[in-house]
Amino acid sequence: IDAGKIKLDLPQIAENGLVVPVAVDVESPMSDADYVKAVHIFAEANPQVQTASFYFTPACGKAAAATRMRLAQTQNVICVAEMSNGALYTAKAEVKVTIGGCGG
Question: Which residues, other chains included, contact 16 with Cβ-Cβ below 8 Å and sequence gap of 6+?
């Protein structure tokens, strides 16, 4: 898995671990020959590690999505993008969940 092509937007510090915003944008021409098939988001320390998956087609025009997720504690959030040619790309960011949130 190669690093790059993924812009992962997460807060460095989450005051409330119950609603942590996450946005992902993958660089791709989104043509019939070269597009993003899927994006998966994982939170390493959550009881259920996979938090979200998004699926795309060339008709989407852009491989971007945003949602909110729950983080049990301070941890790394990992994003994996699967391309139409089978290549995989990854990005990782640490999010610190404060005591007032879901964990510490």
Answer: 100, 101, 102
